[in-house]
Amino acid sequence: MAVQGWLERAGSKPGWWRGPNGVRVGWRAVMFLLLLVVFVFAEAGTVSRLSLPHPAAGVLLMPGFVVFNEALLLVPALLASLVMVRLEGRAFAVTCGVADARHTRRCAAGAAAGVALLGALALALLLSGHAHLALSGLGGRDIAAYAIIWAAVSLLIGAAEEFAFRGYLFQALGRGGVWPAIGVTSLLFGVVHYSDIGEGLIGVGNAVLAGGIFALLIRRTGSLWASIGLHGGWDYGENFLFGAHDSGQACAFTLLQLSPVGVPWLSGGDTGPEGSLLATGILMAAGLAILLWRKEASG
After folding, report:
1. Which keywords fit this entry according to its UniProt record (predicted)?
2. pTM
3. Helix (H, G, I), strand (E, B), or coil: what is residue 133?
C-alpha cells in the first residue's frame, strides 16, 4: 500500500528528484502519464478479448460507440489521478480542479461558449463559400431525443479529455509554472490528435491551440468544469448541431450536415472544420478574449 503523502516529503538535500516541496512536479507529471498509459493498455487488452468492431473511416459514429470509446480514456484518467492524489495526500477535488461550488453554472456557461465558437466557425465557412449546409433528414421526436443524447455524449467527451490532459496533470505542472503547464499539456493534446483517423497538420495545430484555450480558461476560472463545458459545447456543435466531420469522422443522427467546399486548408476538407485556417483564427481570437477577460484565479 502506498504511503499517504509520500510525494510531499521534502528531500534532506534538494536534488533532481526531490526538492523542498517533495518530488518535483515534472516527475509527478511523468508518473501520472506512465500510470495513464499502463491503465489504458490494461483496459485495451481486456477490451480486445471482446472482439468488438471498430468503425472504419467514413462510417458514421453512433452515440453508444462514442460513449464506450471515451470511457476507455476517462476511467484510466480517473484511476491515475486517484493514485497520484493518494500519493500526495491531497483532496481529489482540489488537486484535480473540480472543487467548484458553481460547477453547474461554470459548465453550462462553458458549453454555451463552445457552441457559440463552433457556430461562429460554421458561419465563417458558409459566408466565405467554403461550406455547404443542409438538413440531415432527422425529424420529429428524433430531433429532441438525439439533441439530448448527443448533449450527454459531448459532455462525456469533454470530461474524459479534460480529466486526462488538464485535470491532475495540469494542476501538478502548474505548481512549477503556469505557462510551462499550458505548453506541455497543449502539445500532448496535439500529439494525441495526430493519431486520429483523417487528422491533418492544420487540425493538429488547432488541437494544440484548443488545448491552450482550455488551459487558459481553467487558469482564469480556477475550475475544470468550465473547460469541460467549453470542450463539450464545441463537440456538440460540431457533432450534432452541424453534423460536420470531427478528425475525419462524422456522427449519425445529426440535426444538420455541414459539408466542405473548396480547398482543404480553408474548408477543412475531410478533416472537418477543425482542419481549416479559419478555425485557427477563431481559436486565436478566443484565446485572446480569455487572456483579456479578467485577472487570473488565485492558486
Report:
1. Membrane, Transmembrane, Transmembrane helix
2. 0.91
3. strand
Give the CA angle between residues 53, 201, 107 to the nearest 5°.
70
> Does residue 32 sit within a domain?
yes
Residue 299 lies in a domain: no
| Number of domains within the chain | 1
241 contacts: CB under 8 Å, gap ≥ 6? 115, 118, 119, 254, 255, 256
Domain around 238: 6-293
**Residue 122, domain member (yes or no):** yes
Q: Rounded to whole angstroms, what are the CA distances from 189 to 53, 163, 169?
A: 26, 12, 12
The SS3 assignment for 175 reads: coil
Buried b (16+ CB within 10 A) or exposed e, 219-250: bbbbbbbbbbbbbbbbbbbbbbbbbbbbbbbb
Pick the closest to residue 268 from 192, 189, 204, 185 (CA basis).
204
18-19 and 22-23: which strand pairing? antiparallel
Residue 1 included in any domain: no
SS3 241: helix
N- to C-terminal Cα separation, the chain? 30
User: What does the alpha-carbon distance between residue 141 and residue 172 come to, in Å, rounded to a whole number?
Assistant: 45
Q: Write out pLDDT tens, residues 92-122.
A: 999 999 998 899 999 999 999 999 999 999 9
Task: Compute CA 34 distance to the chain's CA centroid, rounded to the nearest angstrom.
Answer: 19
Tell how far CA 50 is from the center of its chain: 27
**Angle at the Cα of 203 from the Cα atoms of 190 and 195, rounded to 5 degrees:** 55
Q: Residue 297: what pLDDT?
A: 46
Q: Is 49 helix (H, G, I), strand (E, B) or coil?
A: coil
Question: Look-up: residue for cell 420529429?
Answer: 140
